[in-house]
Known about the structure:
By secondary structure, the chain is an alpha/beta fold. Helix content is 31%, strand content 27%. The protein contains eleven helices and 14 strands. Helix 3 crosses helix 4 (119-129) and helix 5 runs parallel beside helix 6 (175-188). The radius of gyration is 25 Å and the shape is elongated.
Amino acid sequence: MEAPSNDNNLLVQVEKLSRRYGDTLAVNQVSFKLKKGEVLGFLGPNGAGKSTSMQMITGNLAPTTGQITINGFDMIDQPIQAKSCIGYLPENPPVYRELTVDEYLTYCARLHRVPSSQLLTALDDAKQHCGLEQVGKRLIGNLSKGFQQRVGIAQAIIHQPPLVILDEPTVGLDPIQVREIRKLIQSLGQDRSVILSTHILPEVQATCDRVQIIRRGELIYHASIDELNQRGQGNNLTVAFNSPPELKELESISGVSFINKIDSHRFHIQFDQQSFAEKLVQQAVTNNWGLFELIPQNSSLEEIFVELTTSEDSPQETDSATLEVSAA
């Protein structure tokens, strides 16, 4: 279903979205955009406001303030049109265990007003996409948790929506099932947009084009995956010298922000200038320090996530251009 839009490539626009429960502000002034064909990771610790945000974006929960536009349709003023553009898998898949896979998906297709003439095609496409061709006649209650999750994703795409929203899609799955669901999410992103809400970091790296991090109901970071990966690279070095200088000599090099002496020959150095490593090498050669080791130290995504979500002075909304630490 199409609607006029100022940007034909813009699928989702969320502006100053807030939700209050009594005196508790669960989501505070969240704004972001999603283009067609993007996979967005909505990342945050438990209780950060991810699920509340997803429920508002899908129209299952009314915002206290703010506006949500899906494919040009306002979620408040045109809820039927907006919701028809969304496929949603909540954290607890809404599957009926007493039905077979085919019965359940047929029921979901009718709920989404898939025409009767297209019903069998829609059913076959969803099952094929989610790897359910061999279990159509089986009761959902007899399937493994991984296959039940696949059924949940199949119901979200049965009506071919341009936007699929997945809330914690791999919770409770074993490592093999997690890998299979990640591959499925990647395939979904090839022909539609996906919002993946999760607190599991490898899922974001494995499946998403962009990531945004929410903390205490506020967006504190948004960037592409490449920019996030670059966030942890550089700015830290482990160096070793045969004839190590005094600590104050290293501290005098322009760009040093912190030095920790590891042992009699090795040092860990934090710096804030891109040319620092070159300056260090020049100083080592000039002063005959005998530099024999220079190793960049990268921050993991987990370390960056913890840094952003636990720091008391993290900015309310930060993009990659203003962050000083760079991710691996």
